[in-house]
Amino acid sequence: MGFFDFLRPKPIPKATFVTAYEGLFEKKIPAVRPISQLNFVVLDTETTGLNPKMDYIISFGGIKLSHFSIPVRNCKEMYLKVPIKNAEAIQVHELIRTKDPVALRDFAREFLEFIGPHILVGHHVGFDLAMLEKALRPFGLKKLQNAVLDTQYFAMRLEKGIQYDPSMGKPGEFTLDSLCERYGITLDDRHTAAGDAFLTAQLLMKLLKLAEKKGIKDFGSLFR
User: Fold this and answer.
1) H-helix or E-strand containing 128?
2) Looking at residue 143, what is its pLDDT?
3) Phi–psi pair at 63, nearest 5 degrees
4) What is the rounded distance in angstroms from the CA atom of residue 124 to the CA atom of residue 102?
5) 134 in Cβ contact with 52 (< 8 Å)
6) To 10 degrees, the CA torsion angle through 185, 186, 189, 194?
7) Using CA of residue 49, residue 55, residue 59, residue 63, what is the dihedral sign?
8) pLDDT for residue 68
9) pTM of the model
10) Residue 82, pLDDT score
């Protein structure tokens, strides 16, 4: 052992469900696979705050979407056992402690089994992914390996072009509320993870139909 080796953090052993998840990515999605044959998992989290280092996930909502449909049986909602200290978060999300909160290890296992190797989708999804990766880190997962599609930037690309600079746009033009209103999606059950995931899934279907009209028809062109 070197002189400074004791200062290095010890690697966290991988849980069996993490190893199983990572094994799903041995084969990549072919670039020519049509969008109609892709599987998406639309997700959202509600948290105790906006700092991934300090805050926790309160609830998770996810919806599997394939063939431009949202089967109800493919929806998942989980509430976690977390130290809720932020009263403002509870007020915004209108959440109370549930009767059957999920332990973190059970959440991590069920979450990875749910998303599989599918494309992850969310609105301003970077924050959700940071919170989810933090929750999964104690079980040996360093980073989620799924392809990721952010509906906020996808909408910008489709409406304004791939070179669009968001700093030049109107404030609030591409929020989830604004886009739902623009695409004729009824706003309902906002500020719950499951409700926001459902709205985002509806928005995704509208955007994918628009993308198809613009010549974006397969995995490769979707992520170019």
Assistant:
1) helix 125-136
2) 97
3) -135, 125
4) 25
5) yes
6) -30
7) positive
8) 79
9) 0.89
10) 76
